[in-house]
Amino acid sequence: MNGREAQDTKEGTSGKVMVFSFNASWEGNFFEEKEVTVYYKYKRGEFVLLTAKARYGREFARKEEL
Predict the structure, then answer these.
(1) How buried is residue 15: exposed, middle or buried, by Cβ count under 10 Å (0-12/13-18/19+)?
(2) Spatial contact of 11 and 2, defined as CB atoms under 8 Å apart
(3) Which helix (H) or strand (E) covers residue 20, if one does?
(4) What range does the domain containing 22 cover?
(5) Is residue 54 included in any domain, yes or no?
(6) How high does pLDDT run on average in the chain?
(7) Long-range contacts of 6-13 (CB under 8 A, 24+ apart)
(8) Residue 25 lies in a domain
(9) Is residue 66 part of a domain?
């Protein structure tokens, strides 16, 4: 899975963070970027998506910058 490792995961849970160019309005505000974090785990060899969150803004840390 692409993206950098999320730093706020709990034991037994994995997370990945990706930053995308957004350059659009959301709820009446303009945002340059969208950061998406996906939390998941593997249970009995099956991928289980736990949750995903999105943040809108600019100048989020990107994988290549860390």
Answers:
(1) buried
(2) no
(3) strand 14-26
(4) 4-59
(5) yes
(6) 92
(7) 6/37, 6/39, 9/39, 12/41, 13/39, 13/40, 13/41, 13/50
(8) yes
(9) no
> Each residue of 31-56: pLDDT tens digit?
999 999 999 999 999 999 999 999 99
Strands in 46-57's sheet, in edge-to-edge order, are: 4-5, 14-26, 29-43, 46-57
- Please classify residue 17 by burial: count the beta carbons closer than 10 Å to its beta carbon, then call 0-12 exposed, 13-18 middle and 19+ buried: buried
65 in a structural domain: no
Q: Number of folded domains in the chain?
A: 1
Backbone phi, then psi, for 65, in 5-degree steps? -90, -10
The structure tokens listed for 37 are 């974090």
pLDDT reading at 66 higher than 70: no
**The pLDDT value given to residue 62:** 76
- The pLDDT of 1-19, averaged and rounded, is 92
